[in-house]
Amino acid sequence: MQTVKVSDTPMEFICEFLTKAKEIADGNSNIPEELRVNLQKALDIACSLDGYLEKMSSQESAPLAELYKKSMEHNWDKVFEEGKTQFRLPKECITGLVEGQTLKMLVHMSKARRILEIGMFTGYGALSMAEGLPTDGSLVACELEPYLKEFAQPIFDKSPHGKKITVKIGSAMDTLKELAAAGEQFDMVFIDADKSNYINYYKFILDNNLLHLSGVLCVDNSLFKAKVYLKGTTDPNALALQDFNQFVSSDPRVEQVIVPLRDGISLIRRVPVTPAWAGTQKKVTDDEVFWGVNGRSILDRMRLDGKVAYVTGAGQGIGRAFAHALGEAGAKVAVVDQDQLKAECVAEELKLKGIHCIAITADISKLADVEVMIDSIVSKWGKIHIACNNAGINMNSASEDTTLEEWDKTFSVNLRGTFLCCQAAGRVMLNQGYGKIINTASMASLIVPHPQKQLAYNTSKAGVVKLTQTLGTEWIDRGVRVNCISPGIVDTPLIHSESLRPLVQRWLSDIPAGRLALVTDLQAAVVYLASDASNYMTGHNLVIEGGQSLW
Ligand SMILES: C[S@@+](CC[C@H](N)C(=O)[O-])C[C@H]1O[C@@H](n2cnc3c(N)ncnc32)[C@H](O)[C@@H]1O
Protein backbone atom coordinates (compact mmCIF):
# COMPACT_ATOMS: atom_id res chain seq x y z
CA MET A 1 0.00 0.00 0.00
CA GLN A 2 1.40 3.37 -1.00
CA THR A 3 1.41 5.89 1.88
CA VAL A 4 0.14 9.35 0.96
CA LYS A 5 2.46 12.09 2.17
CA VAL A 6 0.52 14.44 4.42
CA SER A 7 1.64 18.07 4.33
CA ASP A 8 2.80 19.22 7.71
CA THR A 9 4.89 22.36 7.27
CA PRO A 10 4.26 25.68 5.47
CA MET A 11 6.70 24.69 2.72
CA GLU A 12 5.04 21.30 2.24
CA PHE A 13 1.67 23.07 1.91
CA ILE A 14 3.09 25.54 -0.62
CA CYS A 15 4.43 22.60 -2.54
CA GLU A 16 1.10 20.73 -2.36
CA PHE A 17 -0.91 23.75 -3.56
CA LEU A 18 1.55 24.58 -6.33
CA THR A 19 1.44 20.97 -7.53
CA LYS A 20 -2.38 21.14 -7.69
CA ALA A 21 -2.25 24.49 -9.49
CA LYS A 22 0.27 23.11 -11.98
CA GLU A 23 -1.92 20.06 -12.63
CA ILE A 24 -4.89 22.35 -13.32
CA ALA A 25 -2.77 24.53 -15.56
CA ASP A 26 -1.44 21.50 -17.45
CA GLY A 27 -5.00 20.27 -18.03
CA ASN A 28 -6.24 23.59 -19.37
CA SER A 29 -5.14 24.67 -22.83
CA ASN A 30 -6.29 28.25 -22.21
CA ILE A 31 -3.60 28.82 -19.59
CA PRO A 32 -0.79 30.93 -21.02
CA GLU A 33 2.55 29.14 -21.34
CA GLU A 34 4.24 31.88 -19.31
CA LEU A 35 2.03 31.11 -16.29
CA ARG A 36 2.83 27.41 -16.61
CA VAL A 37 6.58 28.13 -16.77
CA ASN A 38 6.42 30.38 -13.72
CA LEU A 39 4.39 27.83 -11.80
CA GLN A 40 7.00 25.21 -12.60
CA LYS A 41 9.79 27.53 -11.36
CA ALA A 42 7.94 28.16 -8.10
CA LEU A 43 7.35 24.41 -7.75
CA ASP A 44 11.03 23.63 -8.29
CA ILE A 45 12.07 26.18 -5.66
CA ALA A 46 9.52 25.08 -3.08
CA CYS A 47 9.68 21.33 -3.54
CA SER A 48 13.46 20.99 -3.74
CA LEU A 49 14.25 22.99 -0.62
CA ASP A 50 13.75 20.33 2.09
CA GLY A 51 15.68 17.71 0.12
CA TYR A 52 18.54 20.11 -0.44
CA LEU A 53 18.67 21.07 3.25
CA GLU A 54 18.78 17.37 4.17
CA LYS A 55 21.54 16.68 1.70
CA MET A 56 23.73 19.62 2.67
CA SER A 57 23.31 19.32 6.45
CA SER A 58 25.76 17.11 8.33
CA GLN A 59 24.49 13.56 8.15
CA GLU A 60 23.03 11.82 11.17
CA SER A 61 24.96 9.25 13.23
CA ALA A 62 24.22 5.53 12.82
CA PRO A 63 22.08 5.34 16.02
CA LEU A 64 20.04 8.36 14.87
CA ALA A 65 19.54 6.81 11.43
CA GLU A 66 18.39 3.57 13.09
CA LEU A 67 16.04 5.48 15.39
CA TYR A 68 14.52 7.31 12.44
CA LYS A 69 14.04 4.15 10.39
CA LYS A 70 12.56 2.26 13.35
CA SER A 71 10.18 5.15 14.12
CA MET A 72 9.03 5.37 10.50
CA GLU A 73 8.50 1.64 10.09
CA HIS A 74 6.69 1.13 13.37
CA ASN A 75 2.94 0.53 13.27
CA TRP A 76 1.81 3.30 15.62
CA ASP A 77 -1.88 2.75 14.88
CA LYS A 78 -1.54 -0.89 15.94
CA VAL A 79 0.19 -0.12 19.24
CA PHE A 80 -2.52 2.43 19.99
CA GLU A 81 -5.28 -0.05 19.15
CA GLU A 82 -3.60 -2.63 21.38
CA GLY A 83 -3.75 -0.08 24.20
CA LYS A 84 0.01 0.22 24.46
CA THR A 85 -0.13 4.00 24.02
CA GLN A 86 -2.73 6.39 25.41
CA PHE A 87 -2.77 8.39 22.18
CA ARG A 88 -2.46 7.64 18.49
CA LEU A 89 1.04 8.91 17.77
CA PRO A 90 1.69 10.28 14.27
CA LYS A 91 5.15 9.32 13.09
CA GLU A 92 5.44 12.72 11.37
CA CYS A 93 5.91 14.30 14.77
CA ILE A 94 9.54 13.12 14.79
CA THR A 95 12.03 16.00 14.48
CA GLY A 96 14.17 14.42 11.75
CA LEU A 97 17.58 15.18 10.31
CA VAL A 98 17.57 18.93 9.59
CA GLU A 99 15.84 19.89 12.80
CA GLY A 100 17.91 17.40 14.79
CA GLN A 101 21.15 18.84 13.39
CA THR A 102 19.85 22.38 14.06
CA LEU A 103 19.20 21.48 17.69
CA LYS A 104 22.62 19.87 17.98
CA MET A 105 24.19 23.02 16.50
CA LEU A 106 22.32 25.18 19.02
CA VAL A 107 23.63 22.99 21.85
CA HIS A 108 27.18 23.58 20.58
CA MET A 109 26.68 27.30 20.02
CA SER A 110 25.09 27.92 23.39
CA LYS A 111 27.64 25.63 25.07
CA ALA A 112 24.72 24.02 26.88
CA ARG A 113 25.55 21.42 29.50
CA ARG A 114 22.07 20.69 30.80
CA ILE A 115 19.05 20.30 28.52
CA LEU A 116 15.37 19.76 29.14
CA GLU A 117 13.13 18.32 26.43
CA ILE A 118 9.37 18.38 26.80
CA GLY A 119 7.87 15.72 24.52
CA MET A 120 10.40 13.08 23.50
CA PHE A 121 8.46 10.74 21.17
CA THR A 122 11.04 8.14 20.02
CA GLY A 123 14.01 10.24 21.16
CA TYR A 124 15.35 11.53 17.83
CA GLY A 125 15.60 15.12 19.05
CA ALA A 126 16.87 13.99 22.46
CA LEU A 127 19.71 11.94 20.99
CA SER A 128 20.60 14.68 18.46
CA MET A 129 20.94 17.20 21.30
CA ALA A 130 22.79 14.72 23.51
CA GLU A 131 25.36 14.30 20.73
CA GLY A 132 26.13 18.02 21.03
CA LEU A 133 26.61 17.90 24.80
CA PRO A 134 30.02 17.59 26.46
CA THR A 135 30.84 14.20 28.03
CA ASP A 136 29.52 15.29 31.44
CA GLY A 137 26.42 16.98 29.97
CA SER A 138 22.91 15.74 30.69
CA LEU A 139 19.46 15.82 29.13
CA VAL A 140 16.14 15.23 30.87
CA ALA A 141 13.40 14.14 28.44
CA CYS A 142 9.76 14.38 29.59
CA GLU A 143 7.42 11.91 27.95
CA LEU A 144 3.87 10.85 28.73
CA GLU A 145 3.96 7.42 27.11
CA PRO A 146 5.95 4.68 28.92
CA TYR A 147 5.94 2.71 25.65
CA LEU A 148 8.21 5.33 24.06
CA LYS A 149 10.90 4.99 26.70
CA GLU A 150 11.07 1.25 26.04
CA PHE A 151 11.16 1.96 22.31
CA ALA A 152 14.01 4.49 22.51
CA GLN A 153 16.20 3.04 25.26
CA PRO A 154 17.79 0.16 23.27
CA ILE A 155 18.99 2.65 20.65
CA PHE A 156 20.13 5.18 23.28
CA ASP A 157 22.18 2.30 24.71
CA LYS A 158 23.91 1.82 21.36
CA SER A 159 25.08 5.44 21.29
CA PRO A 160 27.99 6.74 23.38
CA HIS A 161 25.75 9.76 24.08
CA GLY A 162 22.70 7.80 25.23
CA LYS A 163 23.87 7.69 28.85
CA LYS A 164 23.48 11.48 29.04
CA ILE A 165 19.70 11.06 28.61
CA THR A 166 17.29 10.51 31.52
CA VAL A 167 13.68 9.89 30.49
CA LYS A 168 11.00 11.02 32.95
CA ILE A 169 7.70 9.32 32.26
CA GLY A 170 4.49 11.11 33.19
CA SER A 171 2.77 14.41 32.56
CA ALA A 172 5.42 16.97 31.60
CA MET A 173 3.89 19.53 33.94
CA ASP A 174 4.31 17.17 36.90
CA THR A 175 7.94 16.61 35.90
CA LEU A 176 8.50 20.37 35.60
CA LYS A 177 7.14 20.84 39.12
CA GLU A 178 9.42 18.11 40.40
CA LEU A 179 12.46 19.66 38.68
CA ALA A 180 11.61 23.14 39.99
CA ALA A 181 11.20 21.80 43.54
CA ALA A 182 14.65 20.24 43.27
CA GLY A 183 16.09 23.63 42.21
CA GLU A 184 17.11 22.36 38.77
CA GLN A 185 18.10 24.78 36.01
CA PHE A 186 18.77 24.18 32.30
CA ASP A 187 20.87 25.89 29.64
CA MET A 188 18.54 24.80 26.87
CA VAL A 189 14.88 23.78 26.86
CA PHE A 190 13.10 22.27 23.86
CA ILE A 191 9.30 22.36 24.02
CA ASP A 192 7.72 19.85 21.64
CA ALA A 193 4.74 18.20 23.38
CA ASP A 194 0.98 18.93 23.56
CA LYS A 195 0.43 22.30 21.87
CA SER A 196 -2.38 23.43 24.17
CA ASN A 197 0.04 23.33 27.09
CA TYR A 198 2.92 25.21 25.44
CA ILE A 199 1.96 28.43 27.17
CA ASN A 200 1.73 26.70 30.56
CA TYR A 201 5.14 25.07 30.09
CA TYR A 202 6.62 28.39 29.02
CA LYS A 203 5.15 30.34 31.94
CA PHE A 204 6.17 27.68 34.44
CA ILE A 205 9.73 27.54 33.10
CA LEU A 206 10.19 31.31 33.28
CA ASP A 207 8.33 31.87 36.54
CA ASN A 208 10.31 29.12 38.26
CA ASN A 209 13.72 30.01 36.85
CA LEU A 210 14.10 26.64 35.15
CA LEU A 211 15.93 28.31 32.23
CA HIS A 212 19.36 29.72 32.99
CA LEU A 213 19.63 33.47 32.36
CA SER A 214 21.97 32.91 29.43
CA GLY A 215 20.02 29.87 28.27
CA VAL A 216 17.98 29.31 25.12
CA LEU A 217 14.41 28.07 24.83
CA CYS A 218 13.47 26.37 21.54
CA VAL A 219 9.87 25.75 20.66
CA ASP A 220 8.83 23.44 17.86
CA ASN A 221 5.88 23.89 15.49
CA SER A 222 5.51 27.58 16.23
CA LEU A 223 4.28 28.19 12.65
CA PHE A 224 1.88 25.27 12.97
CA LYS A 225 1.32 24.42 9.31
CA ALA A 226 1.12 28.18 8.54
CA LYS A 227 -2.19 28.28 10.40
CA VAL A 228 -0.86 30.70 13.02
CA TYR A 229 -0.73 33.51 10.47
CA LEU A 230 -3.64 32.57 8.22
CA LYS A 231 -6.98 34.20 8.91
CA GLY A 232 -10.00 32.16 10.01
CA THR A 233 -8.08 29.36 11.73
CA THR A 234 -10.29 27.15 13.88
CA ASP A 235 -7.80 24.37 14.63
CA PRO A 236 -7.43 24.42 18.46
CA ASN A 237 -3.71 23.61 18.28
CA ALA A 238 -3.10 26.44 15.81
CA LEU A 239 -5.08 28.82 18.03
CA ALA A 240 -3.02 27.71 21.04
CA LEU A 241 0.17 28.47 19.13
CA GLN A 242 -1.17 31.81 17.93
CA ASP A 243 -1.76 32.79 21.56
CA PHE A 244 1.58 31.38 22.56
CA ASN A 245 3.53 33.34 19.90
CA GLN A 246 1.64 36.51 20.80
CA PHE A 247 2.31 36.07 24.51
CA VAL A 248 6.04 35.47 24.01
CA SER A 249 6.43 38.38 21.59
CA SER A 250 5.07 40.78 24.19
CA ASP A 251 6.82 39.24 27.21
CA PRO A 252 9.47 41.75 28.41
CA ARG A 253 11.46 38.95 30.04
CA VAL A 254 12.56 37.50 26.69
CA GLU A 255 13.63 38.15 23.11
CA GLN A 256 12.42 35.80 20.39
CA VAL A 257 12.77 35.01 16.74
CA ILE A 258 10.75 32.44 14.79
CA VAL A 259 12.91 30.58 12.31
CA PRO A 260 10.86 29.22 9.39
CA LEU A 261 12.62 25.88 9.45
CA ARG A 262 10.25 22.93 8.85
CA ASP A 263 7.14 23.76 10.93
CA GLY A 264 8.84 26.76 12.57
CA ILE A 265 11.19 26.86 15.54
CA SER A 266 11.02 29.75 18.00
CA LEU A 267 14.33 30.68 19.55
CA ILE A 268 13.80 32.51 22.80
CA ARG A 269 16.36 33.93 25.20
CA ARG A 270 15.95 35.45 28.61
CA VAL A 271 16.99 39.05 29.07
CA PRO A 272 17.63 40.67 32.45
CA VAL A 273 14.80 43.03 33.33
CA THR A 274 14.47 45.58 36.07
CA PRO A 275 11.50 44.38 38.06
CA ALA A 276 8.75 46.80 38.94
CA TRP A 277 9.00 46.95 42.69
CA ALA A 278 7.62 50.45 42.95
CA GLY A 279 6.14 51.25 46.35
CA THR A 280 8.13 48.53 48.10
CA GLN A 281 11.47 48.78 49.85
CA LYS A 282 13.01 46.28 47.47
CA LYS A 283 14.87 47.84 44.58
CA VAL A 284 17.52 46.92 42.10
CA THR A 285 20.87 48.62 42.61
CA ASP A 286 21.74 49.75 39.11
CA ASP A 287 25.50 49.13 39.24
CA GLU A 288 28.28 46.93 37.90
CA VAL A 289 27.55 44.23 40.44
CA PHE A 290 24.06 43.90 38.99
CA TRP A 291 24.88 44.33 35.29
CA GLY A 292 28.52 43.12 35.32
CA VAL A 293 31.62 45.22 34.68
CA ASN A 294 31.17 46.73 31.20
CA GLY A 295 28.02 44.61 31.02
CA ARG A 296 30.09 41.42 31.16
CA SER A 297 29.21 38.66 33.59
CA ILE A 298 31.97 37.20 35.73
CA LEU A 299 32.78 34.30 33.40
CA ASP A 300 32.88 36.64 30.39
CA ARG A 301 35.30 38.86 32.26
CA MET A 302 37.75 35.99 32.28
CA ARG A 303 37.74 35.73 28.50
CA LEU A 304 40.94 36.71 26.73
CA ASP A 305 39.57 37.42 23.25
CA GLY A 306 41.87 39.66 21.24
CA LYS A 307 44.77 39.25 23.70
CA VAL A 308 48.27 38.17 22.71
CA ALA A 309 50.07 35.76 25.03
CA TYR A 310 53.28 33.79 25.13
CA VAL A 311 54.17 30.83 27.30
CA THR A 312 57.74 29.67 27.82
CA GLY A 313 58.42 26.02 28.50
CA ALA A 314 55.18 25.37 26.61
CA GLY A 315 56.43 22.23 24.87
CA GLN A 316 55.16 20.00 27.68
CA GLY A 317 53.69 19.76 31.17
CA ILE A 318 52.48 22.92 32.88
CA GLY A 319 53.47 25.22 30.02
CA ARG A 320 51.53 23.16 27.49
CA ALA A 321 48.45 23.24 29.75
CA PHE A 322 48.84 27.02 30.13
CA ALA A 323 49.09 27.49 26.36
CA HIS A 324 45.90 25.48 25.82
CA ALA A 325 44.05 27.30 28.60
CA LEU A 326 44.97 30.78 27.36
CA GLY A 327 44.06 29.82 23.79
CA GLU A 328 40.75 28.27 24.86
CA ALA A 329 39.96 31.51 26.67
CA GLY A 330 40.45 33.40 23.40
CA ALA A 331 44.08 34.56 23.34
CA LYS A 332 46.53 34.20 20.48
CA VAL A 333 49.41 32.16 21.82
CA ALA A 334 53.13 32.02 21.07
CA VAL A 335 54.29 28.57 22.14
CA VAL A 336 57.89 28.95 23.28
CA ASP A 337 60.26 26.11 24.06
CA GLN A 338 63.95 25.46 23.67
CA ASP A 339 63.00 22.21 21.91
CA GLN A 340 61.73 23.24 18.48
CA LEU A 341 59.84 20.03 17.77
CA LYS A 342 57.97 20.16 21.09
CA ALA A 343 56.99 23.80 20.51
CA GLU A 344 55.75 22.95 17.02
CA CYS A 345 53.76 19.93 18.24
CA VAL A 346 51.91 22.00 20.85
CA ALA A 347 51.31 24.76 18.29
CA GLU A 348 49.78 22.12 16.00
CA GLU A 349 47.49 21.02 18.84
CA LEU A 350 46.31 24.59 19.33
CA LYS A 351 45.71 25.04 15.61
CA LEU A 352 43.48 21.97 15.64
CA LYS A 353 41.38 23.78 18.23
CA GLY A 354 41.16 26.90 16.05
CA ILE A 355 43.57 28.91 18.21
CA HIS A 356 45.87 31.44 16.51
CA CYS A 357 49.41 30.51 17.46
CA ILE A 358 53.06 30.44 16.51
CA ALA A 359 55.91 28.21 17.67
CA ILE A 360 59.11 29.91 18.82
CA THR A 361 62.36 28.22 19.78
CA ALA A 362 64.24 30.07 22.54
CA ASP A 363 66.59 29.37 25.40
CA ILE A 364 65.35 31.90 27.92
CA SER A 365 68.63 32.00 29.78
CA LYS A 366 70.11 33.75 26.70
CA LEU A 367 69.40 37.46 26.30
CA ALA A 368 69.62 37.25 22.50
CA ASP A 369 67.03 34.45 22.37
CA VAL A 370 64.66 36.37 24.63
CA GLU A 371 64.98 39.48 22.47
CA VAL A 372 64.26 37.50 19.31
CA MET A 373 61.25 35.86 21.01
CA ILE A 374 59.75 39.22 22.02
CA ASP A 375 60.51 40.80 18.62
CA SER A 376 58.90 37.90 16.73
CA ILE A 377 55.71 38.13 18.76
CA VAL A 378 55.48 41.91 18.41
CA SER A 379 56.22 41.80 14.68
CA LYS A 380 53.57 39.08 14.22
CA TRP A 381 50.78 40.45 16.39
CA GLY A 382 51.81 44.01 17.30
CA LYS A 383 51.41 43.62 21.07
CA ILE A 384 52.02 41.40 24.06
CA HIS A 385 49.31 41.40 26.70
CA ILE A 386 50.11 38.21 28.59
CA ALA A 387 53.58 36.88 29.43
CA CYS A 388 53.74 33.45 31.04
CA ASN A 389 57.30 32.91 32.17
CA ASN A 390 57.07 29.27 32.97
CA ALA A 391 60.26 27.56 31.78
CA GLY A 392 62.30 26.08 34.59
CA ILE A 393 64.60 23.22 35.51
CA ASN A 394 65.16 21.15 38.63
CA MET A 395 68.25 19.16 39.57
CA ASN A 396 68.63 17.26 42.80
CA SER A 397 71.71 17.08 44.99
CA ALA A 398 72.61 17.30 48.67
CA SER A 399 73.61 20.89 49.44
CA GLU A 400 77.13 19.92 50.45
CA ASP A 401 77.55 18.31 47.04
CA THR A 402 75.82 20.91 44.88
CA THR A 403 78.28 22.01 42.25
CA LEU A 404 78.66 25.58 41.14
CA GLU A 405 77.71 24.37 37.67
CA GLU A 406 74.38 22.99 38.94
CA TRP A 407 73.71 26.15 40.94
CA ASP A 408 74.50 28.43 38.00
CA LYS A 409 72.54 26.36 35.50
CA THR A 410 69.46 26.29 37.74
CA PHE A 411 69.67 30.00 38.44
CA SER A 412 70.37 30.92 34.85
CA VAL A 413 67.09 29.34 33.69
CA ASN A 414 64.84 29.73 36.72
CA LEU A 415 65.80 33.20 37.91
CA ARG A 416 67.97 34.93 35.30
CA GLY A 417 65.75 33.58 32.48
CA THR A 418 62.57 34.70 34.25
CA PHE A 419 64.11 38.11 34.88
CA LEU A 420 65.16 38.47 31.22
CA CYS A 421 61.66 37.58 30.04
CA CYS A 422 59.97 39.85 32.61
CA GLN A 423 62.20 42.74 31.62
CA ALA A 424 61.83 42.30 27.85
CA ALA A 425 58.06 41.71 27.97
CA GLY A 426 57.70 44.38 30.67
CA ARG A 427 59.28 47.02 28.40
CA VAL A 428 56.70 46.28 25.69
CA MET A 429 53.88 46.26 28.23
CA LEU A 430 54.95 49.49 29.95
CA ASN A 431 54.91 51.16 26.53
CA GLN A 432 51.40 49.79 25.92
CA GLY A 433 50.29 50.81 29.41
CA TYR A 434 48.88 47.30 29.87
CA GLY A 435 50.20 43.85 30.61
CA LYS A 436 49.82 40.73 32.70
CA ILE A 437 52.94 38.82 33.67
CA ILE A 438 52.52 35.41 35.27
CA ASN A 439 55.65 33.68 36.47
CA THR A 440 55.78 30.05 37.47
CA ALA A 441 57.30 29.86 40.95
CA SER A 442 56.84 26.79 43.15
CA MET A 443 55.55 25.61 46.50
CA ALA A 444 59.28 25.20 47.15
CA SER A 445 59.37 28.97 47.57
CA LEU A 446 57.36 28.48 50.79
CA ILE A 447 58.38 25.13 52.23
CA VAL A 448 61.35 22.86 51.81
CA PRO A 449 59.94 19.86 49.95
CA HIS A 450 61.52 16.63 51.12
CA PRO A 451 63.08 14.10 51.18
CA GLN A 452 64.64 15.10 47.87
CA LYS A 453 67.45 17.62 48.12
CA GLN A 454 67.11 20.61 45.78
CA LEU A 455 68.80 23.63 47.28
CA ALA A 456 69.37 25.46 44.01
CA TYR A 457 65.80 24.91 42.82
CA ASN A 458 64.18 25.99 46.11
CA THR A 459 66.34 29.09 46.35
CA SER A 460 65.83 30.09 42.72
CA LYS A 461 62.04 29.74 43.06
CA ALA A 462 62.06 31.87 46.22
CA GLY A 463 63.89 34.39 44.05
CA VAL A 464 61.09 34.18 41.45
CA VAL A 465 58.57 35.13 44.15
CA LYS A 466 60.64 38.14 45.28
CA LEU A 467 61.18 39.16 41.64
CA THR A 468 57.39 38.96 41.15
CA GLN A 469 56.63 41.00 44.28
CA THR A 470 59.14 43.69 43.37
CA LEU A 471 58.05 44.06 39.74
CA GLY A 472 54.40 43.74 40.76
CA THR A 473 54.61 46.79 42.97
CA GLU A 474 56.99 48.76 40.72
CA TRP A 475 54.88 48.47 37.53
CA ILE A 476 51.23 48.35 38.63
CA ASP A 477 50.72 52.09 38.42
CA ARG A 478 51.71 51.82 34.74
CA GLY A 479 49.17 49.11 34.00
CA VAL A 480 51.44 46.08 34.28
CA ARG A 481 50.50 43.43 36.86
CA VAL A 482 53.00 40.78 37.83
CA ASN A 483 51.92 37.69 39.75
CA CYS A 484 53.15 34.16 40.11
CA ILE A 485 51.67 30.69 40.51
CA SER A 486 53.26 28.23 42.91
CA PRO A 487 52.22 24.71 42.04
CA GLY A 488 52.74 21.83 44.43
CA ILE A 489 54.23 18.62 43.08
CA VAL A 490 52.81 18.24 39.62
CA ASP A 491 52.33 14.95 37.87
CA THR A 492 54.46 15.74 34.80
CA PRO A 493 56.91 13.57 32.84
CA LEU A 494 59.70 15.14 34.95
CA ILE A 495 58.66 13.36 38.15
CA HIS A 496 58.53 9.98 36.50
CA SER A 497 62.32 9.92 36.35
CA GLU A 498 64.12 6.94 37.89
CA SER A 499 65.28 8.99 40.86
CA LEU A 500 61.97 10.68 41.70
CA ARG A 501 59.53 7.81 41.21
CA PRO A 502 60.18 6.15 44.61
CA LEU A 503 59.44 9.45 46.31
CA VAL A 504 55.89 9.75 45.01
CA GLN A 505 54.37 7.60 47.81
CA ARG A 506 56.20 9.65 50.39
CA TRP A 507 54.91 12.92 48.91
CA LEU A 508 51.34 11.64 48.80
CA SER A 509 51.32 11.22 52.57
CA ASP A 510 52.23 14.91 52.85
CA ILE A 511 49.38 16.16 50.67
CA PRO A 512 45.98 16.79 52.32
CA ALA A 513 44.31 16.47 48.89
CA GLY A 514 45.67 12.92 48.68
CA ARG A 515 47.02 13.23 45.16
CA LEU A 516 49.60 15.06 43.12
CA ALA A 517 48.56 18.16 41.21
CA LEU A 518 47.50 17.72 37.60
CA VAL A 519 48.49 20.34 35.07
CA THR A 520 44.79 20.92 34.46
CA ASP A 521 44.44 21.96 38.14
CA LEU A 522 46.49 25.05 37.28
CA GLN A 523 44.73 26.19 34.13
CA ALA A 524 41.98 28.32 35.70
CA ALA A 525 44.55 30.21 37.75
CA VAL A 526 46.58 31.28 34.73
CA VAL A 527 43.45 32.40 32.89
CA TYR A 528 42.28 34.36 35.92
CA LEU A 529 45.65 36.08 36.36
CA ALA A 530 45.80 36.80 32.63
CA SER A 531 42.32 38.31 32.58
CA ASP A 532 40.98 41.71 33.59
CA ALA A 533 39.07 40.03 36.43
CA SER A 534 42.35 40.01 38.41
CA ASN A 535 43.39 43.60 37.65
CA TYR A 536 43.63 44.55 41.33
CA MET A 537 45.99 41.69 42.05
CA THR A 538 49.73 42.19 41.80
CA GLY A 539 52.87 40.76 43.35
CA HIS A 540 50.81 37.79 44.49
CA ASN A 541 52.03 34.24 44.87
CA LEU A 542 49.03 32.04 44.09
CA VAL A 543 49.75 28.69 45.75
CA ILE A 544 48.01 25.61 44.33
CA GLU A 545 49.34 22.57 46.16
CA GLY A 546 46.38 20.60 47.52
CA GLY A 547 47.16 21.97 50.99
CA GLN A 548 50.69 20.53 51.14
CA SER A 549 52.37 23.69 52.39
CA LEU A 550 49.95 23.81 55.35
CA TRP A 551 50.94 20.46 56.84
C1 LIG B 1 5.96 16.12 18.63
S1 LIG B 1 6.26 14.71 19.55
C2 LIG B 1 7.88 14.98 20.09
C3 LIG B 1 8.93 14.78 19.05
C4 LIG B 1 10.32 14.69 19.61
N1 LIG B 1 10.69 15.91 20.27
C5 LIG B 1 11.33 14.32 18.59
O1 LIG B 1 12.45 14.86 18.65
O2 LIG B 1 11.08 13.48 17.73
C6 LIG B 1 5.31 15.03 21.00
C7 LIG B 1 5.51 14.05 22.15
O3 LIG B 1 5.00 14.69 23.29
C8 LIG B 1 4.38 13.70 24.12
N2 LIG B 1 3.41 14.37 25.01
C9 LIG B 1 2.22 14.87 24.68
N3 LIG B 1 1.64 15.41 25.76
C10 LIG B 1 2.47 15.26 26.78
C11 LIG B 1 2.43 15.61 28.15
N4 LIG B 1 1.39 16.24 28.67
N5 LIG B 1 3.49 15.31 28.92
C12 LIG B 1 4.56 14.68 28.40
N6 LIG B 1 4.65 14.32 27.11
C13 LIG B 1 3.62 14.61 26.30
C14 LIG B 1 3.74 12.76 23.13
O4 LIG B 1 3.52 11.49 23.71
C15 LIG B 1 4.77 12.75 22.00
O5 LIG B 1 5.63 11.67 22.15
From TrEMBL:
Its EC number is 1.1.1.250. Keywords: Fatty acid biosynthesis, Fatty acid metabolism, Lipid biosynthesis, Lipid metabolism, Methyltransferase, Oxidoreductase, S-adenosyl-L-methionine, Transferase. GO terms for molecular function: D-arabinitol 2-dehydrogenase activity; methyltransferase activity. The keyword Transport does not apply. The keyword Endoplasmic reticulum does not apply. Pathway: Carbohydrate metabolism; D-arabinitol metabolism; Lipid metabolism; fatty acid biosynthesis. One of its GO terms (biological process) is carbohydrate metabolic process. It is an enzyme of class 1 (oxidoreductase). Pfam families: adh_short_C2, Methyltransf_3. InterPro entries: NAD(P)-bd_dom_sf, SAM-dependent_MTases_sf, SAM_O-MeTrfase, SDR_fam. Belongs to the class I-like SAM-binding methyltransferase superfamily. Cation-dependent O-methyltransferase family. This is D-arabinitol 2-dehydrogenase [ribulose-forming]. It comes from Umbra pygmaea. The lineage of its organism: Eukaryota, Metazoa, Chordata, Craniata, Vertebrata.
